[in-house]
Amino acid sequence: MGLWLLALLTLNFALLISACGLDIEDPTPPSPPVWVQKSLPEEWPERGIDAHESGGIYLEWYSQPEIEIMAYHVFRATWYETLDSLGDYELLASLERGSIGSTEFVDEEISILVRYFYKLKAENDSGILSEYSDSLNYMLMPAVRIFQMSPNGQSIELGSERRLSWTYYYSVEMEDYCISILTQNNQILYRDNFQPTNYEGHTEVWIIPDEVDLISGQVYRWRVDTGSSYIDRTELTGSESPWATFLFIGD
User: What CATH architecture does domain 26-139 belong to?
Assistant: First the structure.
């Protein structure tokens, strides 16, 4: 008789909770977020953690299939080179799922030549957090500045020798450059990686190959990336210049 009464009271309590529009929280945490894999140097568009043209570090992860995910939380820790140690992870940003850019973030509160480590957590509609995601790390090098790039301007013509040039003043452990050229419709036209002629910093020159078909009267965008600290052809250190432009006038 006592067990029957206990079961009846339990059922009535559950019905009362349901009638009041309340749900019993599911204590099961959501699965940890998964980072988008870093793209290889020759791939376009670039994916995953990367230098950003704004001067920050770009982060990208996959949207999770669980419908109850409400937010993603980005955590960051700083590597202290002189101490050979990693600091504590601290909350950097919280992004509501479904909002614009909810699976990407640009960390602009950074310093160059400092390595940062990142982790993610997902939060469900009960406020329960997932375990940490895997960690990623990246370090920014000084970027080529827009005023150091030539030609640059929608009315500035590309010379007949098809020459792009820029000046890089910094003596850092940079391994290579990457040139990207886009059409006026922002479609990738050409992308090439090559080693600097001088790692101490000076004016670099790159000639657009003849096989790159440029249309007379069109404006093109171009950018200079730097890369270093490669593991499995994935750079862990780099920078991106702002976009420069040139006008091509053919024969």
Answer: Sandwich (2.60)
